[in-house]
Amino acid sequence: MAPRKEGGFIVPFRPPSAETAFSIERNRIRGESAADIIRAVAIHTDFRIAKTARLKPILEIARDLGIPEKHVEQYGPHKAKIRLDVFEDLPAEPKAKYVVVTAVTPTPLGEGKTVNTIGLALGLNRIGKKAVCCLRQPSLGPVFGIKGGATGGGKSQVLPIEEINLHLTGDIHAVGAAHNLLAAFLDNHLHHQNRLEVSPASITWSRVVDMNDRALRRIRVAIGEIGERESFFEITVASEVMAILALATSYRDLRDRLARIIVAETSQGHPVTAGALRSAGAMALLVRDALKPNLLQTIENTPAFIHAGPFGNIAHGNSSVLADWIAARTAEYVVTEAGFGADLGFEKFVDIKCPVSRLTPDVAVIVTTVRALKVHAGKIRVVPGKPLPPELLQEDPDAVAAGTANLRRMIEIVKRTGIPAVVAINRFPQDTDQELETIRQAAQDADGVELVEAFARGGAGASALAQAVDRAAGKSKAFRPFVDPAWPARKKIETLATDVYGGEGAVLSERAERQLETYARWGLDRLAVCMAKTHLSLSHDPFLKGAPRGFRIPIKEIRISAGAGFLYPLAGDIMTMPALGSSPGGERMDVDDRGNLVGFAQ
Which CATH topology does 489-571 take? Predict the structure, then answer.
């Protein structure tokens, strides 16, 4: 069989492993298509690469960072939690350059943001800089749904991939238990006299499960009991508890934030909190260990913190402050990833996470691809689970040029903050020189543009990007957020709609107006704003590609996460419980007779 091409480099074909053969045979039995069989081979290529990696003992990774063994709690040989008393033995102030990786507006194709985040950390180490990457933990919902996982791929992975993508150290389960404990306390309070005079009709607190399960979007609870009502489930990573985990800076801060969670109103219109329900202490107990950052490593033994996984729409979509704090005191460069495009995860990184961490970013990297920009030209539609349109793989510099409007907008968004913007072009085998040059020309306002081949070459394929980031790190100007924290929520919403998304403003429903009045009465209308909108467009409409103008953001309602410290307006149709597609990735996953994972995607 002929050699195949990865990221522009020829890779010799290797016969499928026994595990791959097992997966292919299972696919044939199930009647899967040839494309699915090819996909099974590709997945196991990543596994094969991962299995050739020589992982260091996690104690050695910690020691290389200057973290004494007494602060390391091992979970097997290759993963560990770092105790919070580690700060007693670390420098008082952070010393690292701080890099955030974002992207153009995502497409169903995937742009390789995690691959490039990991790759940049590898590349920085290759050029002699001590770097650490900080990532979110993947949710089981996407793992078994369409995404398959979030540990990178090829020669740019964090390991061990199966443990990271499945349960890791149990943090997500702890978050789910704490969230559901509060729900149980609330319903128990209604059952026993309801001394706080909670209005059942006002309850906003859900229950959670870390799965994509559309059947749980709308349910009835307490049937036949006091407080019988309609309720709902959300995916665990959309829980306010998860957002709090990522933002908490100490055990005391965690406990205080949990106590501030608002779950309902009293009959007199006052907020009902987890503290008032006396559940905050027990919730803190459940997530006590989850607050400790998880330390792992990349395929090239670069340290990697994988900690917290807040939803990119409903929550702020960034990994934990504590992990960044440890990394910033032990390395020369910290590379962290913000969810989705610059209009979402990066904006929330700037306006929500940075004020808490007090870390000032030095550089932002914007990941893009030729095929993503073709989609943003507006003429090609990619449907998840369907074959790729053939024109997507054909050379078309004009389509790329049309789609660069989205990239240029993302560069503008980043540079509004005073942070230098470096564009990383994640190269694929079918990309042509003319298409790549089209992107370079469109990104002239950036502070650097580099091709990245981390998937095929690891750190060597990201060394040029690392050098560009190192050069740009000295160009940062006075850092400024998108909104002033002192502004009322309405002004923050309007500013995001116009200055970030490029629209003409926002339109609030009557319900949203009433909610703002309530929050003002509670003295909470100046909390940060975490806009919940589609990630597939700069607008609220997922079908508006490129850099649309002339739209107004419709705000259906505005919910509150008082413990996390923000309001989250729902712009358009946003689901807090995702669903599985007609052919979810979990259908192709299995274990063989030796207990090895089969068909596990990256």
Answer: Formyltetrahydrofolate synthetase; domain 3 (3.10.410)
